[in-house]
Amino acid sequence: MADAKCATGKCEDKTITYEAVKAIADNILSRIKVKPVIGIICGSGLGSLTEAITNAQNIDYKDIPGFPVSTVPGHAGRLVIGMLEGLPVLAMQGRFHYYEGYPLVKCSLPVRVMKVMGIEYLMVTNAAGGINPTYKVGDIMLIRDHINFVGFSGNSPLRGPNDDRLGPRFPPMTDAYNPALITRALSVAKEMGIPDVVKVGTYCFLGGPNYETIAECKMLHTCGVDAVGMSTAHEVVVAQHCGLKVFAFSLITNKSSLDYEKKEYANHAEVVAVGKSRESTCRELMCRMIKSIAAERGSSGSADCGCTT
Ligand SMILES: O=P(O)(O)O[C@@H]1C[C@H](O)[C@@H](CO)O1
After folding, report:
1. Average of pLDDT values for 251-261?
2. For the domain that residue 73 is a member of, what is the CATH number?
3. Mean pLDDT calculated for residue range 190-217
4. 51 a catalytic residue
5. I want to staple 253 with a disulfide (CB 3.0 to 4.6 A). Which of 120, 189, 197, 271 is the partner?
6. Which residues form the Nucleoside phosphorylase domain (predicted)?
7. Sorting pLDDT into bands at 50, 70 and 90, what band is 299?
């Protein structure tokens, strides 16, 4: 991977050049039978979203030169490429987190690879703690907006020289989460008979890997945060920079403590277990969204949403 403009070779945020992104995109395209239109990033415990993909081809991250590898339990570390509800998709079973030691530009590299491959939509999922006291474990929060605490200090995947082929120097973040897709997801939730489970809210990206203190949760609540996690915002910043349409949701896997009398002890095994227990609902929501995009584009979605089991 080429590192641009790093005089010492020790810069943490190494720029990844357009040529390096294109080399990865070309490598993947040369190995697959379809040209994906939708990219999917599966959150912790949500890797089985890919089970509905037909004619699937799997590529392990370790077999893609220049691609990072997953190190977190619940993130398998492979691409699954095939057809879903009438559209060609590329799904990531496993994402890259800042706390794993990768700079943000590398954590979000797959999003740029997707763009250069010709992908138009990015669907992102994550596991998150429920800061909003009305949220229950198992709820699904459609992400309307985010607070990127990691970015407040200038730690951005866009830091460093900007290559206009990947997007503008100063991208706006208004409507980074496509409002029309959120509206559609609310209709889909009604069709599925789960309007009470589906919320709309603000996600907050913290660096992790520790879960939050009670004081931090109280502060996030005051700041208007509904759910807290350790991913997604940097991916969406890059997606908005390069012009992908984004739909994202959080599965609330645990409740965050706002009260010293009601302590909660988050743990990753529980996060993954809640993900697995809600996988069919999350999969159905995702499939129905893709089916509606297929219908809009005039692609033939399957007669039934094949993802309800
Ligand atoms: O990849 P996501 O954001 O779904 O994973 C969350 C955040 C941490 O990686 C992990 C904590 O349990 O789950």
Report:
1. 96
2. 3.40.50.1580
3. 97
4. no
5. 271
6. 38-290
7. confident
Ligand 1 centroid, distance to 98 Cα (angstroms): 11
With beta carbons less than 8 A apart as the criterion, state whether 122 and 252 touch: no
Nearest-atom index, ligand 1, CA of 43: 4
Instruction: Provide the CA 101 distance to its chain's centre, in angstroms.
Output: 18
Is residue 108 part of the annotated active site? The answer reads no
Min mean pLDDT across 4-13, 132-141, 230-239 is at 4-13
8 domain-assigned: no
- How far is the centre of ligand 1, averaged over its atoms, from the C-alpha of 125 (Å)? 10
Domain that residue 104 falls in: 15-297
Domain count, the chain: 1
Residue 228 phi, psi dihedral angles, 5° rounding: -125, 140
The residue assigned the tokens 């392990």 is 60
* pTM for this predicted structure: 0.93
**Length reported for the chain:** 309
pLDDT single digits (tens) 127-159: 999 999 999 999 999 999 999 999 999 999 999
Q: Is the CB of 231 under 6 A from ligand 1?
A: yes
Is 288 inside a domain boundary? yes
Within-domain flag for 303: no
Predicted-complex ipTM score: 0.99
